[in-house]
Design brief:
Elements: H1 16-44, H2 51-75, H3 80-103, H4 109-137, H5 140-168, E1 173-176, E2 179-181, H6 183-205, H7 229-257, H8 272-295, H9 302-319, H10 330-359, H11 365-392, H12 394-414, H13 425-437, H14 441-455
């Protein structure tokens, strides 16, 4: 029986659910990227103050925190399929509210904020459910590759979203005397169709690994040591700092690049189209980083990849420091922007892989919810701070990001052993690998699994 449970090469393992997860992440990211560029124009059409933009963005981030924690907790208590479909229904309701908000005119503020919050619940909840399922099912040798490939699907969605938005922006048809199918209403309808399609495909396509195969649901594992608290805390702090730098980059790039009045810097002053070009560059570099870390997956320890990619971010933010007040050379800005984009794509996926291995054979839903919530919380708090600080000096943002990433890197090195994989991962990986490679294992694998435990 020992030989039948030997660890197999990752290229022989087939995880059918990953293709479905790639589709889900692609659609979710495309939806987010479709809304974000049109949000400002959509809101200024109403009678509310500019601050509503910040309120709507914050509502989405708060929704992500609620979704990550709530559905992460729920995921450990109900089936993955039920939890996943529940997140998608939250998105459908949220999208419906945003469509309603675009039709009722001046009183659209409350349904819009609630709708965006529910869309955030969908986004955060879906990530928590999918990441926890990957953590419990995918073997350690394939885990980082799976997470990276999901990241690639997400970046592709982020890239396609604005392209769809451009096509929709030309739509303006009078459907009824009191109703016009314009660019704002049409985006909501398009997102509704995406939500509904995702629900139908997941409803009929998602085949969950039997609960009997989950080592974390078996009484034999009650005596195993829990995940190391120090390793969990290091990863949560790392996620917060990582998303802090990422959010600062996203927040200040537009104002810096298109600053025609030299309010923040006198180095640029380009048109808004140059901002889109920078974010296209970010997407390209992110995909490159994800392919790179997927290639290095089986060759280098995830912790080394995490430390090395974080160091790239420290260097990148150093280039953003304006040693001369409000003066950044174009070369320094380009190099820094590329390094930061590369760092985020690589470090985020390496961090999730390290984190899932620390969790080991234990229920991953709540843990993954915490990990995602820490990043979402950082995204909710950072934009206000970033905009206030660059009005004083860009170096405040740059130095704070440098310091936070360097602190994260230092903690990972100090607590290196605390970030090591759970000692019981090997048996768990072997059982799941046998199940995923045996198309007729659904009935026999639980028996094989318990025999394997007793033989040890």
């Amino acid at each position: 029986m020992e030989s039948s449970l030997s660890l197999q090469p990752s290229w022989r393992v087939h995880y059918p659910f990953l293709s479905l997860f790639y589709f889900n992440v692609f659609c979710s990211c495309a939806s987010y990227a479709l809304i974000l560029p049109s949000l400002w124009s959509y809101l200024i059409e109403g009678t509310y103050h500019d601050s509503l933009v910040a309120q709507v963005l914050t509502a989405f981030s708060i929704g992500e925190v609620i979704g990550a924690l709530g559905f992460g907790f729920l995921r450990d208590r109900i089936s993955t399929r039920s939890a996943l479909l529940s997140t998608l229904f939250c998105g459908l309701i949220g999208t419906s509210l945003t469509i309603y908000a675009s039709m009722i005119g001046e009183s659209y503020k409350i349904p819009l904020i609630i709708g965006r919050m529910l869309q955030g619940v969908w986004n955060g909840g879906e990530q928590a459910v999918e990441q926890s399922y990957i953590s419990e099912i995918v073997s350690d040798i394939s885990k980082l590759s799976a997470i990276s490939e999901i990241g690639i699907a997400g970046v592709c969605g982020y890239t396609l979203g604005p392209v769809i938005g451009v096509a929709i922006s030309f739509l303006d048809m009078n459907v009824h005397q009191k109703f016009s199918a314009d660019e704002y209403w049409s985006i909501g309808v398009f997102l509704f169709i995406i939500n509904l399609t995702m629900i139908l495909i997941n409803w009929f396509s998602f085949q969950e690994i039997p609960i009997a195969m989950r080592v974390n649901r078996s009484k034999e594992y009650e005596g195993y040591e829990p995940p190391k608290v120090s390793g969990i805390l290091i990863c949560l702090l790392f996620s917060f700092c990582l998303f802090y730098g990422f959010t600062v980059q996203e927040t200040i790039t537009g104002p810096l690049v298109s600053d025609s009045t030299a309010k923040y810097t006198s180095s640029f002053g380009y048109s808004i189209s140059m901002t889109y070009i920078y974010f296209i560059l970010e997407g390209f570099v992110s995909v490159l980083g994800l392919f790179l870390i997927s290639f290095l997956n089986e060759k280098i320890d995830d912790r080394i990849l995490l430390a090395a990619s974080t160091f790239l971010g420290v260097i990148g933010w150093f280039f953003f420091i304006d040693f001369e007040y409000k003066e950044i050379s174009h070369a320094a800005f380009y190099i820094g922007f590329i390094l930061i984009s590369l760092e985020f794509s690589m470090a985020r996926n390496a961090a999730f892989s390290v984190y899932s291995k620390i969790i080991g054979p234990y229920p991953a839903g709540w843990y993954m919810g915490l990990m995602l919530a820490s990043g979402c919380l950082s995204r909710a708090l950072t934009p206000y701070w970033a905009m206030q600080s660059i009005e004083i000096s860009i170096k405040i943002c740059a130095i704070s990001c440098c310091a936070s990433l360097f602190l994260s890197l230092l903690l990972v090195i100090i607590f290196w052993e605390s970030c090591a994989p759970h000692p019981k991962n090997e048996l768990f990986n072997n059982v799941i690998l046998d199940f995923c490679n045996d198309s007729e294992a659904s009935a026999t694998t639980p028996l094989i699994y318990h025999r394997a435990l007793s033989s040890r």
